[in-house]
Design goal:
Number of helices: 11
Number of strands: 16
Strand order of the largest sheet: 10-9-8-7-13-6-14-16-15
CATH architecture of the largest domain: 3-Layer(aba) Sandwich
Order of helices and strands: HEEHEHEHEHHEHEHEEHEEEHEHEEE
CATH class of the largest domain: Alpha Beta
Helix content: 25-40%
Number of domains: 2
Distance between the termini: 31 Å
CATH superfamily of the largest domain: Dihydrofolate Reductase, subunit A
Structural class: alpha/beta
Strand content: 15-25%
Shape: elongated
Largest sheet: 9 strands, mixed
CATH topology of the largest domain: Dihydrofolate Reductase, subunit A
Length: about 350
């Protein structure tokens, strides 16, 4: 199963909106075949593992996710395993997709195949936490990327922020983008920095959808992100049809949301992105949006790059929050990982 998980990670940057899945076929303590799901619409891990195996009868299939039992873009993997004569299937976890949800394992058992489920389950769930969250909670797994100085500042008082962190940290951010289904920012960040929000990496990747929260449709039609391929979504509360048409003519997709305290309802935004098949959402935004997401408890993980520099008490902070009047009001986080990237520290935290 550990080998199957290694194979599944090969699809880390390309399988969206599908889960990352690996499969290993074993018979008489010998690996007969291996496969992984590379891209939506292409064969799943099980048929990939079977395709070069002449005789899989009596073999055991180790799969990181319950084999599917329904017809999607590809035929059911259960049928492929049954037809091949597999005698035992070991799955790391059940499929959270309601279209499968245990039906795949039941079909295998009905065909006389021995089934075991739960081997290295936590590792498999970590690999597909976005897919699981979308299937079970109708929202993406949300990760916020923040870059700050030693004194917790994200920019100078003037807004100047290039660059707080090192080249190595910025390169690492592009990997975060590459494994994300979508990158979300606010209009203030767009107006200040004109970001591209694409993943500039040297390997094959499904580029993330770029999403901008723009309550009043201030988005420039010539923004840099308009010049790169891929979907670009504007989420707004404005009914300015002239500006909407101009943005759509420039290649943006514009979606209207009800106004909630001057901006789209963030919970509705997450549900909408789940409908767009977004598994993993990366937030790259300023203090206002990060503060709102923190307040609404919508962030699942923070990745903070901290540079060994000081910007002073006039610099801009990480979160714009309502006044916290006593220590009991503080927002608690749990540190789960710390590592060096060049001169910087990369901190990974989750809500406490």
């Amino acid at each position: 199963m550990a080998r199957a998980l290694v194979l599944a990670r090969k699809g880390l940057y390309t399988t969206d909106p599908n889960p990352r899945v690996g499969c290993v076929l074993v018979k008489n303590n010998t690996i007969l075949g291996e496969g992984w799901h590379a891209k939506a619409g292409q064969p799943h891990a099980e048929p990939e593992a079977l395709k070069n195996v002449q005789d899989a009868k009596g073999a055991t299939a180790y799969v990181t996710l319950e084999p599917c039992s329904h017809h999607g873009r590809t035929p059911p993997c259960c049928d492929a395993l049954i037809t091949a004569g597999i005698s035992r299937v070991v799955a790391a976890m059940p499929d959270p997709n309601p279209l499968v949800a245990g039906q795949g394992l039941k079909r295998l058992q009905a065909a006389g195949i021995e089934v075991t489920c739960g081997v290295l389950r936590q590792d498999a769930e970590l690999l597909n936490r976005g897919f699981i969250k979308r299937m079970t909670q109708h929202r993406p797994f949300v990760r916020s990327k923040l870059a700050m100085s030693l004194d917790g500042r994200t920019a100078m008082a003037s807004g100047e922020s290039k660059w707080i962190t090192s080249t190595g940290s910025r390169r690492d951010v592009h990997k975060l983008r590459a494994e994300s289904s979508a990158v979300l920012t606010g209009i203030n960040t767009v107006l200040a920095d004109d970001p591209a929000l694409n993943a500039r990496v040297d390997f094959d990747v499904e580029q993330p959808i770029r999403v901008v929260l723009d309550s009043q449709l201030k988005m420039p039609v010539n923004a840099q992100m308009a010049s790169f391929p891929g979907r670009r979504l504007i989420l707004t509360c404005s009914k300015n049809d002239i500006k909407r048409q101009a943005l759509e003519n420039a290649g943006f997709e514009v979606f209207y949301f009800e106004n909630l305290q001057g901006r789209p309802d963030l919970h509705a935004v997450m549900a909408f992105l789940a409908d767009q098949q977004v598994n993993n959402l990366l937030i790259e935004a300023g203090a206002i949006l990060n503060g709102a997401l923190l307040t609404e408890q919508l962030i699942d993980e923070y990745v903070v790059y901290m540079a060994p520099s000081v910007l002073g008490d006039q610099g801009r902070g990480l979160f714009a929050l309502p006044a916290l009047n006593c220590m009991a009001d503080k927002k608690k986080l749990k540190l789960t990982d710390v590592r060096h990237i060049g001169p910087d520290l990369k901190l990974t935290l989750i809500p406490s």
